[in-house]
Every structure is written in C-alpha cells, then in structure tokens.
C-alpha cells in the first residue's frame, strides 16, 4: 500500500514549513519507505503501519496548531512491494 498525504496546519500564518517538518520527521523516523515532494509525502507499507504514521504525523502538527487539514490518497494493492520506485520506473521506461 502507498499512502500519499499532506498535513497542513491552519491558523498559524502563511509560513508553515516548521509545522510540516514535524510531520515529515514522524514519517522519516517510522522506518518505512517514503518520499517527500513539494505537495505530498508518500509512505509505503501495510495498512496499519501507514495509517499509524499518518495519525502520528497529524498529531505532531496538531500539537502546535489550532486546526489541521489532512489530504490523503491511497493505492491499496495487496502483495505489491517497492511501489514507490517501481511505479516511477515504469513511467520512465515508457518515456525513453
């Protein structure tokens, strides 16, 4: 399973990088395969693992912000591993 999510603190002003860093820190410390870009952080693992990471990432931001927005998208494909890399490699192969 791959979960792409974005956690945004609300009510803290426009500069939210330090709050987002709190969420990304949780993902990095999880030990699960992950990737962060300008819009989302993706994490790969089993359902319970991924949802726990998302829950803890939201909690990290919620601890410092009065309101939190969460956007989440999941690719649920049992038995598939290394999807974070293999999906991109497939697209790159078709671009050659």
Automatic annotation (TrEMBL):
Organism superkingdom: Bacteria
A GO cellular component entry from the record: cytosol
Domain Thiamine-binding protein, chain residue ranges per copy: 3-92
InterPro entries per the UniProt record, alphabetical: MTH1187/YkoF-like (IPR029756), Thiamine_BP (IPR002767), UPF0045_domain (IPR051614)
Pfam families listed in its UniProt record: Thiamine_BP
Family from the record: Belongs to the UPF0045 family.
Cross-referenced PANTHER family: UPF0045 PROTEIN ECM15 (PTHR33777:SF1)
Protein's recorded name: MTH1187 family thiamine-binding protein
Source organism per UniProt: Streptomyces alkaliterrae
Source organism phylogeny: Bacteria, Bacillati, Actinomycetota, Actinomycetes, Kitasatosporales
